[in-house]
Specification:
Shape: globular
Structural class: mainly alpha
Distance between the termini: 44 Å
Largest sheet: none
Radius of gyration: 16 Å
Number of strands: 0
Strand content: under 5%
């Protein structure tokens, strides 16, 4: 018996055919960066919550990838509070693409 292997699209949410796959991936990447910064600064969740102006359970949710209660805007604001410059670039989609993309890129 052979296993069927399917090549990933690069977006696990799209591969699972979940709605709003690009937004889910963008939020996941932003949350991962927030978690990395919190860990790098050796902050506990209570300290991070105070800095971010939120609660410890919300920080826990971010760090555990439970992002349904967070908008892209809120996650971006958290990054700026943590000392990160955030740049939003809008450009025309390539003609060869059927749809425009939402992408988070870290420099």
């Amino acid at each position: 018996m052979k296993n069927k292997i399917t090549m990933s699209s690069g977006n696990v949410f799209a591969d699972l055919e979940l709605p709003d796959a690009e937004e889910r991936l963008a939020k996941a990447r932003l949350a991962l960066k927030i978690s990395e910064i919190i860990q790098k600064q050796h902050l506990n969740q209570i300290e991070a919550a105070k800095i971010l102006g939120t609660t410890q359970p919300k920080v826990s949710a971010i760090m555990n990838g439970n992002l349904s209660g967070f908008s892209l805007e809120r996650l971006i604001c958290f990054l700026t509070v943590l000392g990160q410059d955030v740049q939003i670039v809008v450009k025309s989609k390539p003609l060869r693409h059927k749809t425009a993309d939402l992408e988070v890129v870290f420099a």
